[in-house]
Amino acid sequence: MIELHKVTKKYGSRSAVEDLSFSVQKGEVVGFLGPNGAGKTTTMKMITGYMVPTAGEVKIDGKDIFEEPLKTKKKIGYLPEVPPIYSDMYVEKYLYYVAGLKDCPKEKMNSLVNSVIEKVGLQEVRHRLIQNISKGFKQRTGLAQALISEPEILILDEPTVGLDPNQILEIRNLISQLRGQHTIILSTHILSEVQATCDRIIIIKEGKMVAQESLASLREKQSQSRRCISVRVKQTSEVLEQTLKQLNGIEDIKSSQNNILSLLVNADTDTNINEQVAKVIIEKGAGLLELSESFSLEDVFLKLTGDNTKDN
Question: What does pTM read for this prediction?
């Protein structure tokens, strides 16, 4: 459905993207990852036809996007990092406006607008000015404009950036509901979103690909070196974390929102480590709500990309 062949984009003598090749099959949900400045946004702009590559080919459904731009772009819905919305327009009026820009059939406009409003949950704000709605609803409006023409392909660049935890969960659930209906490329820094929604990941660093694998394959490789135990508790504390760190085989502990702890465990550790972790949590009165074992995508990401703090 999407093919990039030896794509390069240069700004003067600097290559933002270099010799990048990959394909995305119809119906796939692919996570597109990389540190800041890796070339993710540049690549997504070339896939959507917004930016012309210095060299290489970008094909959508077998057609070169720059040789047949109108035909191929109709297959794409694009949500850039900053949603292309107009704050002085009403939500519903804006969506009719976008439907017109995308040359949607006039006889279908009402049904398309009503359908996308229901799909992304904009019913309660459809008659409000965009400038007066929350950032979460603005992000939903941006997603609605990407979906309005019923595109086969969705390109989503940091769709949850700047949102609070509840809004992030809402958008993540929405993306999960879209799987199977669209071919999706999702760029994000929130790795839990990738694990929750994607079939495969592509990781780039300094404009070059460093990994392209299914999550199942990465999980298999990671299990041979380190495991990750994820626990959710009622209340965490420094004492709890220090006690868990003393367990044999626990290499590191990272805490995140909603009282979730990620414990990195050496692969050679006894299989009863889960029971030991649960016992400590109960003894410390932290209130064990959930315990599961998975691989650490963050660990894989850091190994492949190293430290990179350049701006996009």
Answer: 0.74
